[in-house]
């Protein structure tokens, strides 16, 4: 190190406020610094990055970034945001397959697009994306839609089951959706009749949203929406399945039993296109490897188009008289819609369906009314079936054929407006003049009165709960306030003076003069994070005898040996709890297998 003396000249400008004088004064000072020889270093500060900041939204953009917001094209330039109004192009009205024209409004501009809509109904009858009707009666699981070149990683399969007595015929049991890294399923249950939804093998209760999938229900049909790709699938208890894809995302890039979105209806694996009379044969090619149906792995494929039909639909069997309600398709209520829907084919399919053991003619009527709904016609047809196609709603809910908005509901003691449905649909709703007691409640009320739980949280009409400090007392919120009642699971008859109230099990137990330390099942509320469950777990309970003994020192003293019933042995088991996000999670816990009387306080 060299010790150097350096003379530094600093210059300071001082501005005076005289009429026209600006004076600069230079001062000199001597400073001693230490300089260490070595490689040169830069002391210049790094340049400040060019950014545009929106303090209100707490966002920032780098210079050169461009984005669209609030109907303006915005650009970050030299630290300032430039605005250019969005210029909307003249909308072009495309020609859509099956006339499924959709008007889209992005908040600034309106445009038109097409939907590719594929439907299955009855035993089962298909309508391809291009509107071609055909029948395929096999009962394996088949691919309806998959992408030819993966872009959104979407695949949809139908799970069929045999439902026609004495015939080779099947109905839709469920639909399997693989989207990105998730598998969702909708399945028709018969007891009670309803559609069940699962996501990655976990049951979910709509409304529910996760990873780009949104489950919705009208308490009749269940929908899975894919907002990012403007598409959805829906399933009703009457075996009516709809696959609806946004044409702008899938045009000429699908294959399967539904055909090509915007293209041919009959396509084989590998992309070979057949004529429109061959869809019943190309449908064999699309077996989905369902582990529950291993017999289908060897099912026929690549069936020639000129092979004679075997078991394909030709009409109702000779021994069957078609249900007269199929004639409803010629009723005046369908007259206006008949210009847009092939009523003749629907009636033929209805007559075949009415010969099944499930009397599945309702499915053809439902599908026809649903397609009329898409064309703008609401058909109140169920009231003409003498109750055979009625939908049973839970509680006070009533069935409505055409709704575009969910029920208003109570929250925080006030009425909240129900959300708009993405499509006009049917389902179970509150009667006029009533609202739901809660967003997901099936109880309808006139006013939004609500009760308060033990910690002050709102409880809606119909909800029940227990007091954390006394779970042997239950409470229910009614339209008139809180009602309470004791919870006694069972009572024992004990000798006089030998009964003890068990506040854990909400019952009386009999004391014994003998030692009775053993594991006993006890019902408990278990809460872990946002997950909870009511379960029975073994705990050590019973009577331990305390033995007196004598301590002899300078004098005699009687001591009591107090012993308590404590854990002796246990093993590790798995506990399944339900969570607020409608999923379930597994946790390990210590399961008591043996108990013994030990000195109190020992472990």
General description of the model:
Residues 1-38 have low confidence and may be disordered. The chain is mainly beta and 603 residues long. It folds into five domains: 51-85, Ribbon (Complement Module, domain 1); 97-296, no CATH class; 324-384, no CATH class; 398-448, no CATH class; 517-599, Ribbon (Cystine Knot Cytokines, subunit B). The strands form 13 sheets. Strands 8, 9, 10, 11, 18, 19, 20, 21 and 22 form a nine-stranded antiparallel sheet that branches. Helix 3 (343-353) packs antiparallel against helix 4. A hairpin with a 2-residue loop joins strand 6 (72-77) and strand 7 (80-85). The longest helix is centred in the middle third of the chain and has 14 residues, at 361-374. The chain contains four helices and 42 strands. The chain starts with a strand and ends with a strand. InterPro entries: Cys_knot_C, Glyco_hormone_CN, Mucin_vWF_Thrombospondin_sf, Ser_inhib-like_sf, VWF/SSPO/ZAN-like_Cys-rich_dom, VWF_type-D. Keywords: Disulfide bond, Glycoprotein, Secreted. Its main location: secreted. It holds the Pfam family VWD. It is found in: Secreted.
């Amino acid at each position: 190190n060299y010790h150097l003396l350096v003379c530094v000249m600093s210059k300071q400008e001082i501005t005076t406020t005289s009429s026209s004088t600006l004076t600069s004064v230079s001062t000199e000072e001597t400073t001693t610094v230490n300089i260490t020889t070595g490689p040169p270093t830069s002391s210049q500060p790094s340049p400040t990055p060019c950014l545009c900041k929106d303090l209100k939204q707490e966002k920032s953009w780098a210079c050169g970034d461009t984005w669209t917001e609030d109907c303006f094209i915005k650009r970050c330039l030299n630290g300032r945001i430039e605005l250019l109004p969005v210029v909307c192009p003249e909308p072009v009205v495309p020609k859509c397959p099956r006339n499924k024209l959709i008007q889209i409004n992005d908040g600034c501009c309106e445009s038109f697009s097409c939907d590719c809509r594929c439907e299955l109904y009855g035993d089962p009858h298909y309508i391809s994306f291009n509107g071609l009707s055909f029948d395929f009666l096999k009962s394996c699981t088949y691919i309806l839609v998959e992408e030819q070149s993966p872009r959104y990683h979407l695949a949809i399969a139908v799970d069929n089951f045999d439902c026609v007595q004495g015939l080779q015929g099947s109905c839709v049991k469920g639909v399997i959706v693989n989207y990105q890294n998730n598998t969702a399923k909708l399945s028709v249950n018969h007891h009670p009749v309803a559609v069940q939804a699962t996501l990655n093998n976990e049951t979910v209760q709509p409304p529910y949203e996760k990873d780009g999938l949104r489950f919705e229900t009208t308490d009749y049909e269940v929908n899975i929406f894919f907002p990012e790709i403007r598409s959805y699938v829906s399933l009703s208890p009457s075996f009516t399945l709809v696959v609806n894809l946004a044409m702008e995302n899938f045009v000429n890039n699908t294959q399967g039993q539904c055909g090509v979105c915007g293209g041919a209806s009959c396509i084989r694996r590998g992309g070979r296109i057949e004529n429109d009379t061959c869809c019943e044969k190309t449908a064999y090619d699309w077996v989905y490897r369902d582990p529950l149906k291993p017999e289908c792995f060897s099912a026929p494929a690549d069936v020639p188009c000129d092979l004679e039909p075997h078991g394909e639909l030709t009409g109702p069997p000779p021994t069957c008289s078609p249900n007269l309600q199929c004639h409803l398709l010629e009723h005046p209520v369908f007259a206006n819609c008949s210009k847009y829907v092939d009523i003749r084919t629907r009636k033929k399919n209805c007559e075949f369906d009415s010969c099944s053991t499930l009397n599945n003619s309702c499915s053809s009527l439902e599908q026809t009314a649903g397609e009329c709904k898409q064309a703008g016609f609401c058909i109140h047809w169920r009231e003409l079936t003498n109750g055979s196609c009625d939908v049973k709603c839970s509680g006070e809910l009533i069935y409505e054929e055409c709704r575009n908005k969910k029920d208003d509901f109570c929250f925080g003691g006030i009425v909240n407006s129900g959300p708009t449905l993405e499509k006009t649909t049917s389902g179970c709703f509150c009667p006029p003049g009533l609202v739901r007691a809660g967003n997901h409640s099936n109880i309808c009320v006139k006013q939004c009165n609500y009760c308060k739980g033990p910690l002050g949280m709102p409880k809606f009409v119909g909800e029940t709960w227990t007091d954390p400090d006394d779970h042997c007392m239950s409470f229910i919120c009614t339209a008139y306030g809180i009602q309470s009642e004791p919870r006694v699971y069972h009572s024992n008859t004990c000798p006089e003076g030998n009964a003890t109230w068990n506040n854990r099990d909400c019952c009386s137990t009999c004391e014994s003069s003998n030692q009775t330390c053993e594991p006993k099942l006890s019902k408990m509320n278990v809460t872990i994070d946002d997950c909870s469950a009511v379960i029975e777990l073994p705990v050590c309970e019973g009577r331990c005898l305390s033995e007196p003994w004598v301590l002899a020192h300078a004098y005699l003293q009687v001591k009591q040996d107090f012993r308590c019933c404590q854990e002796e042995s246990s093993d590790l088991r798995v506990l399944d709890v339900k969570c607020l996000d409608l999923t379930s999670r597994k946790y390990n816990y210590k399961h008591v297998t043996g108990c013994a009387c030990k000195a109190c306080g020992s472990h």
